[in-house]
From TrEMBL:
Cofactor binding, per record: Binds 1 FAD per subunit.
Signal sequence coordinates: none
Annotated binding of FAD, by residue: 49, 109, 134-136, 286
One MF annotation (Gene Ontology) recorded for this entry: flavin adenine dinucleotide binding
Cofactor (UniProt): FAD
Residue ranges annotated for the Pyridine nucleotide-disulphide oxidoreductase dimerisation domain, each copy included: 332-438
Gene3D superfamilies reported in the protein's UniProt record: 3.30.390.30, FAD/NAD(P)-binding domain (3.50.50.60)
Domain annotation FAD/NAD(P)-binding: ranges: 3-297
Alphabetical UniProt keywords: FAD, Flavoprotein, NAD, Nucleotide-binding
Record-given protein name: Pyridine nucleotide-disulfide oxidoreductase
Species of provenance: Lentzea guizhouensis
GO BP annotations listed: 2-oxoglutarate metabolic process
Length: 446
């Protein structure tokens, strides 16, 4: 069949591209080999946060005097999680896609020629564009015995029907720390194995230790500077000879783009894949390697859809228009949904300095009226990184209970290049945790 646009991948990124081009009047097909809605809907963002939320809510209540007792019902938590995945049934997602004019093609799609996609031996052609939105897959480490040992990946960790008696988590990234806390709060005996001196090493240096404190408070055994050597059913052997045992072993050592060679498709800010003549091949989301985050992939998807529409009408997307994903370079927000939460956007202080910026760093405890009302003994930290030449923010990090809701203000400040002098006039409501913005600006010297 012929279409104006063919999108390979029916996750949130592919859905956003397809919806945008279909809404703009272009005939659009979306190819999906598994479930329409993709990794985020069924095995990542939604089920993982559902597993975490009940424990966070209980912990938050217990931090306020006057709340007595309380416990989690693991069965109910798992049932709630399953509700968010529609029990791994994509009927509703398919109906939505069809209702907005997207033609859903089941099967594995492969680019087999210029503007040509083959699915199960059937060739489909795109008059305008092919978009690759195939996401990413788990990156498996070179461990002795791994090929012969059934282990969990993020999929099993978010879709398990029962709570394992014990769980070993290998990897100190986002999946590792989130799943360690989720299953510990549901009653599993969890050991987290981190190869470096702290988890979340790409974030500001104070982030990992604070997350470790939270994990240990929930009974998680955290092993730092612990490198794995081999795995077998029920046991992970470290290079120093120690053996860590668990009924299940979760390997959470990162993800790589879902391409044949695991390498990203390099794109420009409109999503055009580099090195392909004719301006017909696009990519968006994890497969580009830019920022392996659902919201950022959807942002790229909106840019790609807009760029295709503009070019179909004979115009070219301008920088910072809907057809270019310029924010990828300056303001990528991320939340780690542990307790304490981590909310981060922009560049770390080290990254900013490495890029040659003259920066001033402001570090503060989150200790304002709003936080003290929010939780008795509230504990949190924040860092603001200011470019002294432009007097604008280039990075902000928050760690603490419920700090995710502070993140969008920081993202707007960075994207909008708002000076600290102008931010001084953005008055935070009292009494909220947002008061920390005023304290950061005061500490900066305003």
């Amino acid at each position: 069949m012929d279409f104006d646009v063919i999108v390979i991948g029916g996750g949130p990124v592919g859905e956003n591209v397809a919806w945008r081009t279909a809404a703009g009047g272009l005939s659009t097909a979306m190819v999906e080999k598994e479930l329409v809605g993709g990794e985020c809907s069924y095995w990542a963002c939604m089920p993982s946060k559902a597993l975490l939320r009940s424990g966070h809510a209980l912990a938050a209540a217990q931090r306020v005097k006057g709340v007595v007792g309380g416990s989690l019902d693991p069965r109910a938590v798992l049932e709630r999680r399953t509700g968010f995945t529609s029990d791994w049934d994509d009927t509703g997602q398919v109906k939505w896609a069809e209702s907005v004019g997207i033609h859903v093609v089941r099967g594995e799609g492969e680019v087999t020629g210029e503007r040509e996609v083959t699915v199960g031996g059937e060739v489909h052609r795109a008059r305008l564009a092919v978009v690759v939105a195939t996401g990413s897959v788990p990156k498996m480490p070179p461990l002795e015995g791994l090929d012969d040992t059934p282990v969990w990946t993020s999929r099993e960790a978010t879709s398990a029907r029962t709570v394992p008696e014990s769980l070993v988590v290998l990897g100190g990234g986002v999946v590792g720390v989130e799943m360690a806390q989720a299953w510990a709060r549901l009653g599993s005996k969890v050991t987290l194995v981190v190869s470096g001196d702290r988890p979340l090493p790409r974030m500001e240096d104070f982030v990992g230790p604070l997350v470790v404190e939270g994990l240990r408070a929930d009974g998680v055994e955290v092993l730092l500077n612990a490198r794995a050597a081999a795995v077998e059913p029920g046991a992970l052997t470290l290079r120093d000879g120690r053996v860590v045992r668990g009924a299940e072993i979760l390997v959470a050592t990162g993800r790589v783009p879902a391409t044949k060679d695991g390498k990203p498709l390099v794109i420009d800010d409109t999503g055009l894949v580099s090195g392909v003549d004719g301006r017909w091949l696009y990519a968006a989301g994890d497969v580009t390697g830019r920022a392996l985050l659902t919201h950022q992939g959807k942002y790229q998807a909106r840019a790609v859809g807009s760029a295709i529409l503009e070019r179909s009408r004979g115009s070219e997307p301008e920088p910072w228009s809907a057809g270019q994903a310029n924010a990828d370079h300056v303001a990528v927000p991320q939340v780690v949904f542990t307790d304490p939460e981590v909310a981060f956007v922009g560049h770390t202080a080290a990254e900013a300095r490495a890029a040659g910026r003259d920066v001033k760093v402001v570090d503060l405890d989150i200790a304002v009226a709003g936080s003290s009302l929010h939780a008795d003994g509230y504990s949190g930290k924040t860092r603001m990184v200011v470019d002294e030449r432009t007097r604008t923010l280039v990075g902000v990090t928050f760690v603490g209970q419920d700090v995710a809701e502070l993140l969008h203000a920081a993202t707007i400040a960075i994207v909008g290049e708002v000076t600290v002098d102008r931010l001084w006039h953005a008055v935070p409501a009292y009494p909220t945790i947002s008061e920390v913005w005023l304290r950061m600006l005061e500490a900066y010297g305003l």
